[in-house]
């Protein structure tokens, strides 16, 4: 269970005259959500000072989005492509659009999308006929990394389906960089 329970100390100024040391644990056994962080009191009592669960909402949104994944309705990305919704465009050509994520997970977080879905709601739906656009998306990710000054170190992520927290069913690549990435991710 050592892998399921990670513990470390958090040193925080409590007042100008003293400090408290609180244990921070993440564990499936401590809370209902596997990604929650529970801040324990200095004597390690089970009373929580604070609980953070950022991914619970992401998981719920991904499950909700999956229900309508293949209905053909315009996605938010279709509205960005048609300029109905404004975005900060980093790169654009006749087949690909790259724009800054409005909720960045890194100093550089750019989404790269095909302008035409053609059935590519997620990578798991890719067929041989999609080979060219998939290559163009990866090449566009490289161009974005160069434009953003992160060519020497960046990560490309594709979330596929609700268990990977895909929330928009229009294939997209996340180009992340500008900070040290760690392994394993997520």
UniProtKB/TrEMBL annotation:
Protein name, entry field: HIT domain-containing protein
Any Pfam family matching the protein: HIT
Motif Histidine triad motif boundaries: 170-174
Occurrences of domain HIT (ranges): 76-186
CDD domains, alphabetized: PKCI_related (cd01276)
InterPro entries according to UniProt: Histidine_triad_CS (IPR019808), Histidine_triad_HIT (IPR001310), HIT-like (IPR011146), HIT-like_sf (IPR036265)
SUPFAM superfamilies, sorted: HIT-like
PANTHER family tied to this protein: HISTIDINE TRIAD HIT PROTEIN (PTHR23089)
